[in-house]
Amino acid sequence: MDTIGIICEYNPLHLGHKKQIDTVKAACPDSGIVCLMSGNYVQRGAPAIIDKTLRGQAAIHCGADLVLELPLTASLSSAEGFAGEGVRILGGFCNRLCFGAESAAKDSLLETAKALLSPGFTERLRIELDKGVSFPAARQAALQAMGLQADILTQPNDILATEYCKAILAQNLKMEPMPILREGGYHDTAIDEENPSATALRRSMEAQKDWTRYVPEAARAVFAGATLHTLSAGEQAILYRLRTMDDAEFEALPFGSEGLWRKLMHNARKYTTLEEILTATKSKRYTRTRLDRMVMCAFLGLSQRDLETPAPYVRVLALNSKGREILKLARQTGSFPNAGEWMDSPYRLLEQRAGRLYSLFAKGGELPASEKDRRVFYRD
User: d(Cα 330, Cα 193) in Å, to the nearest integer?
Assistant: First the structure.
């Protein structure tokens, strides 16, 4: 079966996401669509605004056939780790990978990906990093020094698209990149009527403004009345965790190299709000998103070693009859490690802890059901 993968967060699923699914269906009407979606925590270092089970249901209602959960340790990784683990998992299910990009130029994306994997790039990157600039700036300067146009690494979706291509090449997968044009601004704070950004939509939801017209009708029904989850709602819990961590726990954190963990530790013991801590820790060298992920990893008890260890299984969130066939084929080829076989694994315990902590981010209303009460959503 021709199967197309989409690595996503659907935080929340909006009209732009539906447009991508519809584009895939129009181009490949007989293909299956597998969405590998972040769970209750997303790559920017925050809780997902709506529970993963509801977002998985919405994806099925909007055209996906199978929704798998991107492991927590991948969801909170850098763009490289996020893409690498996502591609590794979907490599066992899909022969094509569809993703949005500002340029949507497959040849340029692959050329840039090959350059990032070339032997000379690492040395050139170190030279640029030694100048004290941020990683994104150093990466762009290194590519330019190698004689390549690095403009493709200035837009967020292009950056992630390049990482997808890089992962496909590095893992030597027979998976065809399938970029499509991503319209609208990824970080727009004002809602674009035709191409809303998830950032703007989340702000609208948090402010209790009308957001429903920016969400597909099928997803709207699923999200209606859902408990929202925000970083601010769980701030006191995060501060408690930071204040009670010892030096060794800070040192073991991901993204804390070059003494960044020590700087975060001192500021966590000095300031009384999360924003003050992050503002005092941020510098030209380190992006705010890196710090946000670092703090979330601290809260969830994730170490650098945890993020570097691949999850031993993949969890199913939702599926339909075609998705069941895709899953059956994956099981026959050994591409789908069942969660039930890993009852005592460290990852399962880590995943359960993160699931319990997610309810601390609930913004009013009823708390979500516990992990043991969740069920895979199935639609004929």
Answer: 39
Give per-residue pLDDT as tens, 284-318.
888 899 999 999 999 999 999 999 999 999 999 99
Residue with tokens 């197309």: 4
Which is nearest to 297 in space by CA: 25, 9, 41? 41
pTM equals 0.92
Beta-strand runs (E) in 254-355: 315-320
pLDDT by residue (tens digit) across 166-223?
999 999 999 999 999 977 654 555 667 677 889 999 999 999 998 999 999 999 999 9
Give yes or no for a contact between 362 and 227, defined as CB atoms under 8 angstroms apart.
yes
Q: List Cα–Cα distances, 53 to 18, 67, 119, 201, 315, in angstroms.
A: 18, 10, 42, 19, 11
Is the peptide bond between 12 and the residue preceding it cis, with omega within 30 degrees of 0? yes
Which residue is listed with tokens 């009670």?
Answer: 244
Q: Residue 171 has which token pair?
A: 């893992």
Tokens of 365: 């209303």
Across 52-171, the runs of DSSP E, i.e. the strands, are 66-70, 96-101
